[in-house]
Every structure is written in C-alpha cells, then in structure tokens.
Amino acid sequence: MATAGSMTPHPYYPQDLILDHYVANTNTVFHTLVYVSIGFFTVLGLVGVLGYPRRHSTLGPLGEKVAFFWFILCASLHLGFEGYYDIYHATLAGDNSPIAQVWKEYALSDSRYLTSDSFVRVVEAITTLAWGPLSVYCAWSLYHNLPSRHIAQLMLSLAHIYGCTLYYATSIFEGSPHSDPDPYYYYLYFWFFNSFWLLFPAYLLQDSIRVLVKAVGDAERVSAAEKKSKDKKLH
Fold it and tell me: Which of 129, 132, 173, 208: disulfide with 154, CB 3.0–4.6 Å?
C-alpha cells in the first residue's frame, strides 16, 4: 500500500497512473502463457470431441470446422475470461488468481482494463451479455446446420468488427497513452491479438452475405417461376 504522498509502483502506462491496490503478478510470463495455452487447447479438444461425430456432415469442410472452433473460442472468452473482468474489474489490479494475472499481463498493452474505464466496461459488458450467448448459438446452429445460422453469424461478425474498430479507434485517437510503447506489448498484445476479431469476422461476414444473397435470389426465382406458371394456367 502506498504511503502518504507516494504512489504504488507499477509497470503500466501512463506512468503517473494511480493504482494503489496494485499487486505484482506471482506468475512469470511463461507460466501465464502456459495458462493461456491450456485454455486454448482445452477449447480445441472440446471442438474435436464435439465435431468428430459430425465429420461427414455440415462440419466436414475445413472452413466449417474453423468456424465452429471460432464460435466455441469466442463463447469461452466472452462468457468466461471477459465475464471475469465484468465481475472483478474494480479489484483486478490487486487480484492474483490465474485469470486475473492473464488480464494484468495483457493490461501492459492497455491499462484501461485496470482502471474500470467506462468505455471498456460498457464494451465488455455487452460482449459478455450479448455476444457470448450469440457465439454459443452460432456454434449450435452450425453444429445442427440450422437455416438461421447465417443470420446469427452475420450479426455476431458485425458486432465483433464494430466493437474491435471502436476499441482500436478510442485508443489511437488519444495517442495510445494506455499502452506500453515497447513493440512486444503494443504490436503483439494490442494489435496482433485483437486483430483476429477483425479478420475472422470479416471472412465470416462475407460468407454469410454470399449465402444469404444466394438464398434470396433462389427464393425470388422460385417465386417468379411459380407466378409465371399460375399466369399461364389463368390464360
């Protein structure tokens, strides 16, 4: 705890940021990455187990397998990892649970996560409450090849692109004062890791638009053919 007139030392930016409840991580970066890897491969294993019985159906093509993995990964992150932030954001800087230590490691690229920043809190709350369940539905609808799959996929993809764009833009607009300027944290943590929520959704968005446009076109042609057939019978 900081004494009167002093500030608790911490590694975050801006360097005059006050985090009086900050407690340094007890895990090394390596151990933190091990936790992240365990989570990643757990999701990958879950996808493999769920997808194996469907290997000859809708989950046969590689693109569908990747999409299914993406939706399960998003659901896990939104409901679990980001849900943890939503609950414990106010005490995260002094929290040393495994999930909190991952957050504190990531916060080196964006300290807004340790200060209960209003924008981050709102975005993360929406992500957990809306996009988490929608990710589950996207995985479910893909697994069962439901017709509504592409409507949900389009909605989720637009939400991810919009949210990630705002996340980048609000930081860049301010000059990225919350990021450690070290390229490792700024370009790897902040830019690279978050870019997946632009790239994957962009691919899935165009996929859904293509399928929906084709479906509407086919429906219109069928409707036109039926109308033409009825007109012939009337004459």
Answer: 208
CA atoms within 13 A on the CB side of 19: 28
**Helix boundaries (H) for the chain:** 29-51, 62-76, 82-88, 98-106, 118-126, 132-143, 149-173, 183, 193-234
To the nearest 10°, the Cα dihedral for 169, 138, 68, 29? 40
Average pLDDT over residues 116-133: 97
What tokens appear for 171 in the block?
A: 């930081």
Long-range contacts of 55-62 (CB under 8 A, 24+ apart): 57/145, 58/142, 58/143, 58/144, 58/145, 59/142, 59/143
- Asked if residue 110 lies in contact with residue 171, where contact means CB atoms within 8 angstroms, the answer is yes
Q: What is the pLDDT of residues 34-57, one digit of tens each?
A: 888 888 888 888 887 877 676 656
pLDDT digits (tens, 9 = 90+) for 203-233: 999 999 999 999 988 888 887 777 777 767 6
Q: What is the pTM of this model?
A: 0.89
Give one word for 24, left, alpha or beta, with left for phi > 0 and alpha for psi -120 to 50: beta
